[in-house]
């Protein structure tokens, strides 16, 4: 089974990227973890597309998604919304195919240093954005206070209740894919 995992962040120290890497390590299936920054896409504009076409990197990213059966995506949040970087990547993909996530099963997560765990961005992507592109969001999980609730050295969730909820999400996702 081909599962891919990435975060919506372009930060080299992204806690959302750390979260998808952790999730990937907990699944029984093999998961390819990568960073969206590997696909260098310019800021979307109609003028750029008209003058230059769709960048080859957008087609390469779409091809990677096409080959996957399921996705693990962790969205970051800037001012209660998804990051401009993540939206830009999705904008380019939607120019190739408005249903570029059709029939893709998705485990959607988010995290932040704060208590809400980027929940606003998560809910926007789950309730509106990914539905528009045809995704089937199987599970959605907001991980609050990442720096408090996750021990990077031990690679474990330190809050018992959060760890139990996380395991339920992982188990359900694996059963549904």
From TrEMBL:
PANTHER family: CHROMATE REDUCTASE (PTHR30543), NAD(P)H-DEPENDENT FMN REDUCTASE LOT6 (PTHR30543:SF21). This is NAD(P)H-dependent oxidoreductase. Pfam families: FMN_red (PF03358). InterPro entries: Flavoprotein-like_sf, FMN_Rdtase-like_dom, NAD(P)H-dep_reductase. It comes from the Bacteria. One of its GO terms (molecular function) is oxidoreductase activity. GO terms for cellular component: cytosol. The lineage of its organism: Bacteria, Pseudomonadati, Bacteroidota, Flavobacteriia, Flavobacteriales. Residues 1-143 form the NADPH-dependent FMN reductase-like domain. It comes from Psychroflexus maritimus.
């Amino acid at each position: 089974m081909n599962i891919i995992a990435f975060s919506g962040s372009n930060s080299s120290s992204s806690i959302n990227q750390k979260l998808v890497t952790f999730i990937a390590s907990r699944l029984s299936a093999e998961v390819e973890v990568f960073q969206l920054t590997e696909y260098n896409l310019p800021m979307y504009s109609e003028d750029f597309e008209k003058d230059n076409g769709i960048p080859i990197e957008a087609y390469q990213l779409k091809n990677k998604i096409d080959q996957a059966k399921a996705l693990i995506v962790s969205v970051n949040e800037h001012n209660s919304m998804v990051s401009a970087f993540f939206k830009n990547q999705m904008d380019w993909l939607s120019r190739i195919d408005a249903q570029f996530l059709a029939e893709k099963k998705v485990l959607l997560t988010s995290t932040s240093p704060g208590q809400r765990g980027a929940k606003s961005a998560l809910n926007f992507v789950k309730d509106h954005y990914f539905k528009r592109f045809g995704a089937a969001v199987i599970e959605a999980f907001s991980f609050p206070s990442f720096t408090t609730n996750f021990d990077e050295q031990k690679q474990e969730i330190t809050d018992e209740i959060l760890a139990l909820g996380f395991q339920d999400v992982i188990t359900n996702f694996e059963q549904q894919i």
